[in-house]
Write a structure and sequence with these properties.
Elements lengths: L2 H4 L9 H17 L1 H17 L15 E3 L4 E8 L4 E7 L7 E3 L4 E9 L18 E7 L5 E7 L6 E4 L6 E2 L4 E6 L4 E6 L11 E2 L5 E4 L2
Antiparallel strand pairs: 1-13, 2-3, 2-12, 3-11, 4-10, 5-6, 5-9, 6-7, 7-11, 8-10
Helix pairs in contact: 2-3
Length: 213
């Protein structure tokens, strides 16, 4: 094993800029006032906890049309639109990893940032068009489109995407993050029933949501 393989490069650690900023903030608090520094250290530990990597890189390719949960957490809602698109809304708990992963294997087709308002309830489905959000769209090998939407709200104002348009991804690839407890939605067209129900716990890149058909 080479020495370079033992050294973890910051660019390979998902969310490293956030961890670095919180670490510097913690050092600043320690320099100003020890009790504040202790609080800052607690915040740093929490950030490291919720930005931990829970999905390891895989050496095999999963079925191309299978859609997986993009985040650890809980299924908030399941719905079907008039055009046959089925949507699954998920949200991590306080101590779940807040990292997002690619929900499907395929090529990243489009990334769109939509400006909107933070003044709404996190689960208010009526004001979706007014929410600040990032829409990330994949196209599978068979041409099906799968969309991952990261929503912002009054408690979730830091939304990042690690990917670029045109990139080929597999299910275990980190896609982004949302702090804190950011709501995400996966949308895809399928004629088959979904494999999940509201209230169900899910694991990123392990829980199958359904098949893009």
């Amino acid at each position: 094993m080479k020495f370079s393989e033992l050294v973890i490069k910051p660019s390979t650690v998902p969310g490293w800029p956030v961890k670095a900023c919180v670490g510097l903030f913690c050092i600043g608090l320690l320099a100003l006032y020890l009790p504040l520094g202790v609080l800052g250290l607690g915040l740093l530990i929490y950030i490291v906890l919720i930005l931990r990597v829970t999905v390891q890189p895989e050496s095999y390719i999963r079925p191309d049309e299978t859609v997986y949960a993009p985040v650890d957490g809980r299924i908030i809602a399941v719905d079907e639109r008039n055009d046959g698109t089925k949507t699954v809304i998920l949200q991590p708990d306080l101590f779940d990893s807040h990292l997002h992963y690619a929900p499907v294997a395929g090529q990243l087709e489009d990334i769109t940032w939509v400006d909107g308002s933070f003044k709404f309830k996190a689960l208010d489905g009526i004001t979706n068009d007014l929410r600040v959000r990032r829409e990330i769209t994949w196209r599978t090998k068979k041409g099906h489109r799968v969309e991952l939407t990261q929503f912002g709200d009054k408690w979730c104002r830091l939304i990042q995407c690690f990917l670029r348009e045109g990139r080929q991804t597999i299910v275990s690839d980190p896609a982004g993050l949302a702090l804190f407890r950011g709501v995400v939605m996966v949308a895809f067209i399928t004629s088959a029933p979904l494999n999940v129900v509201p209230g169900q716990r899910c694991l990123a890149a392990q829980t199958q949501l359904g098949q893009a058909l």
